[in-house]
Amino acid sequence: MGRKLNGFMWLSPYAWVLALRHKIYDTGLLRAHSFDFPVICVGNITVGGTGKTPVTEYLIQFFLDRGIRPVVLSRGYGRKTKGFRYVEAGDRARDVGDEPLQIKSKFPGVTVAVREDRVDGIRRLCATETPQVLILDDAFQHRRVSPRWNIVLEDYNRPVTKDTLLPFGRLRDLPSALRRAHCLIVTKCPPGLTEEEILQTRKSSGNGLPVFCSGLEYERPIPLRAGQETNLPEGSPLLVVTGIATPAPFIAYLKEHYEVKEHMAFPDHHLFTKKDFKRIQTFLDEHSECRLATTQKDAVRLTPSHLPGWVFMVKISFLTDRFRSFAESFLKLNT
Question: Cys-Cys with 266: which of 26, 270, 287, 302 at CB 3.0–4.6 Å?
Fold first, then answer.
């Protein structure tokens, strides 16, 4: 099936445009900029949620634990502003993007900025400080930057080798682009499988790359609003509100521990409107036993509503210590 899909993709003009673009950069006709400090790119070749932000947060904590303060630069997808902008904890998601705001809220001491043009964004950051390490969130397709470490993510449920290019599939880049990666992280692996079992199914995806396996780990929910009740008992009935690409793992987790009465699913990066807030409030008024539950990414976009609720933080959990050792090796070679 995978071979058929990969062959089928060459019927798309999009595939030829991508191939030509990569060729131009690979031959040096267009310049890829490198920098005097380590640049790490976290990205993918598919659309939708593969878990880039949890991986970025893992790397931030990894470096902080070792006395290194990383800088994060993102495009700021979904924001209504343009140009370079530092992200502050009190910003609105519509101005800086939900994922950069989520990262800043979780790591207030870390510099986070947004800029569509990553080269210009890095130069603007360097005008005020020289980063020890710079993490580019979702920039694998941004060929104008040449990172020292390209980390590519693949959703366990959507193997690259069994997918095809947009609009027929969910690939936004050619599978051959994986040649530029330094490692592949398989995300959202189901519990109960060993890394060895997963790797047996991912030999073709990795194509000789180091491959690491990870799952999602949900933490104890925290209040969305200050001053609200501080405990959410297991089994509580919930109204779940999400605006993420793949809410299925989150819903599956909630169903194991709570009673999901209703799931209001919005598109990824959805900027909630007054109409949306009214719809949520109306449901809660009509079902007074229910509590609002959402993700950390959605919480930064629900802030203007002043609705009480519960935020479930998520972090990446590697099945073994292999990736941490791999990151340690990178650190020794590059700092």
Answer: 270
> For residue 131, how many C-alpha atoms fall within 13 Å in the half-sphere facing its CB?
27
Mean pLDDT value across the chain: 90
Query: Residue with structure tokens 């109960």?
Result: 192
Pair 22, 159 in one domain: yes
**Count of structural domains within the chain:** 2
Two structure tokens written together for 214: 């990870």
Please tell me the pTM assigned to this model: 0.91
Question: Tokens 């634990």 appear where?
Answer: 65
122, part of any domain: no
CATH number at residue 144: 3.40.50
Q: Which residues contact 139 (CB under 8 A, 6 or more apart)?
A: 41, 42, 43, 73, 75, 118, 145, 147
CA angle in degrees (0–180, nearest 5) for 263-265-266: 155
Assess contact for 152 and 160: CB atoms under 8 A: no
User: What's the domain range around 153?
Assistant: 11-70+131-217+316-334
Q: Is the pLDDT of residue 90 over 70?
A: yes
For residues 236 and 295, state if they share a domain.
yes
